[in-house]
Amino acid sequence: MPDTVAITPGTMIELVRETVLPDLPADFSVGADLFEAGLDSMGVMQLVMYLEERFGKKVEPAELSRANFRSGLAMVALVKGQASGA
């Protein structure tokens, strides 16, 4: 069942911190590059599962791109159906 938490760039950064990058700095910018911070393909797959479970967002194969997981801002666009390849 989808979560009722607001879908914001900050929420996405917290999600990344909770699931795949626990050492992400507290002041990590919502527009900063998550791949430069250590996100890898395995982390993306973990995020996909979490987005599907928490927000009810079915991530389509065409949406599995670095661009859609590059930042908190990009992930919000993905969840809201406004992402590249959506």
From TrEMBL:
PROSITE patterns: CARRIER. Coiled coil: none annotated. InterPro entries: ACP-like_sf, PP-bd_ACP. Residues 6-83 form the Carrier domain. This is Acyl carrier protein. It comes from Prosthecobacter fluviatilis.
